[in-house]
Amino acid sequence: MAKIQLIIFDLDGTLVDAYAAVASSLNYSLKLVGCPPIDDDTIKRSVGWGDRNLLARFVPKEILEQALSTYRQHHKEALITGTKFLPNAERVLRKLKEEKYLLAIASNRPKPFTNIILKYLNVLDCFDVVLCADEVAHPKPAVDILLEVLSRLQMSKDQTLYVGDMPIDVQAAKAADLRAVTVATGSCTQQELLEAKPFKMLEQVGELLDFLSESQ
């Protein structure tokens, strides 16, 4: 394949584990609006589509805005204590940057929360572009975020690799005519990822360096 110069990453489930923060903020907001708590496994299976869609699964429409406002206020603090790197993620980012790859984030998280995570983990400076769902017309699995990253960095599709952890990541990449690499460290099973037919499936992001060296 053509030499990769740009790697676009999803965030949650790909580079970081923020499920504890999401669970804490979700159940806090549900309690305040009088809804029952949700177990961790259900929450983990429900993330990836943005916080509004997450809340909409568990609260009535008429109190969604109240619950979402409460969630977002709580989440600013919860992210600090409830987020960590997935195995080898920081090492991979530092190595890729050292090797002069362009790096980008394409996340369905709102931009303020994405920045909190990247600043807290001290890797914001690794990325040439950080783009989020609240900055484009349509979130993943639409192509908007990915195409906007390419436009901002003036990179071609054949020079770009997209790395994510969900079938919607593969869908977005394919719709944008990008090669999608999946990692099995998020909320989906390996079978679900295989059925999405990514270009390559890895166990975790730590395998990305070997994949790049072997394929170029």
From TrEMBL:
One of its GO terms (cellular component) is cytosol. GO terms for biological process: DNA repair. Gene3D superfamilies: HAD superfamily/HAD-like, Putative phosphatase, domain 2. This is Phosphoglycolate phosphatase. GO terms for molecular function: phosphoglycolate phosphatase activity. It comes from hydrothermal vent metagenome.
